[in-house]
What we know:
There is one protein chain. The strands form two sheets. A three-stranded antiparallel sheet has the order 1-2-3, with no helix packed on it. The two termini are 32 Å apart. It is globular, with a radius of gyration of 26 Å. α5 (135-153) runs antiparallel to α11, α14 (300-336) packs parallel to α19 (435-463) and α14 packs antiparallel against α20 (465-484). The longest helix has 37 residues, at 300-336. It is 68% helix and 6% strand. By secondary structure, the protein is mainly alpha-helical.
Amino acid sequence: MELLDGEVFYTKISAQLNSDDDTEVSVRATHSRAGRKPSDERSGNTGNGVTGTFTVEEAVEQLGIGWFQFQLWAITGLFSVADACEMMLLAVLSPVLRCDWGLSQAQVAMITTVVFIGMGVLSPMWGMLADRYGRRNNLLLASFVVWYFGLLTSFSPTYAWVLILRGLVGGGMAGMPHGFTLLTEYLPQKYRAKILIFGTVCWASGTMFEICLAAIVIPRLGWRWLLFLSSMPCLAIIVLFKFLPQSARYLVGAGRKHEALKILKYIAKTNKTKMPEGELVAETQEDRGNPKLLFSRMYMRTTFQVWILWFGTALTYYGMVLASAEILQLHNTKEAGNQGCKCNLLKHDDYVSMIVSTLGEFTSLPLNMLLIDVIGRRWTGAINFMGCSVFFLLIQLHVSQGLLTFFIFAVRGFSSGIFNFVYIYTSEVYPTSIRASGLGSSSMFARVGAMITPFLAQVLLEESLTAAVWVYASICAFCAINAVLLPIETMGKALPQVVA
């Protein structure tokens, strides 16, 4: 600081060490009248037009919650609806194809497995592309792939074509979770977890829509029309895609500050709030989207533990979705008195039971909204895993269909809570530069669990219900311990931008 003729000059000196160990020093002087504080520069209040700086994180916090986030939640929610429809389709389609084409249990299980093979193989690729080229364009391509190959599946002439086309649908579905990433990056920290948890409504609604659609369409029009109509949510996404913004955090990380600033100003206008004063800071990282950063010193342990959690989550959730139909069909077989018959279609009461059990996913909303910002992400995940473990064991008891439906209802609720936990935690723990890569690699391990679960929920369950539920319960208990031991708690923390 220098004093001259009653005016103060603040001299700002910054030093940076280059690769040759020489120190490059830059000096910038800002001019101020006597009595002006140096902190005024940061807040954008200097007298000569020089302003301070702000990050996207600070802008998102100041712009708050409003109509923009509601629109974004509704559009990204369609990705969850479409995903849920395709997943539940596997459960209601299996009994029909088993009867129409005389399939074995292993062949029925493969219809589900090929979907998850496609998802598992392409999940890392979608993540890296989303980090390198942006979330928005990836989501459009993924939606088109799911819609197009889902539509073609309805014309499948043979079992082999069903496997090929459903595998391609799975490859497209691998890119759809990045709608969740995009929504996460526009939510202030105070409301982030609660709004993301509320996204369960979209998933559960998609599941219930698919069950109702199957109950109406299969008896009247057949399974091919069910496949055709199930692809329509993705078509709706394509139509509404023009309203989906690019990630401002991605744009800043990619050095496209002007585009990011334009989106932030639009948010301010839509939410009727004010932009932060100053210049938007461009934080960049050359290795943006580089999967090696997932194994940096800071994130290596987290990455391995998160992968285990995603494996257990997918195995548990999709296992219950598939097992619910199989358990009800097993019940029908026993009541009919023909133990060897494999062609017992779901009845009206069975569809009702599946709808009631799906309501369990809505019950997880208030519990997780209460817990996740009170006891933290890790303990919330552990509670949900243990809840799944307990109620999985209860399914083996010989009880009425009503009580059995309640047990399935409870597992669906807790397993939905698990999905909330892993999505939120993974999106928060990784920085913007590798957030989609982290989600993509985690999704790959989820698909490994999902590939295995049809052989537990459909093949092993047919041989021994007790053995199947004990496998699920044991894996859930192990994952509960793993969740508690996660090294980073993300509750109350801002989203990181780059790897430290």
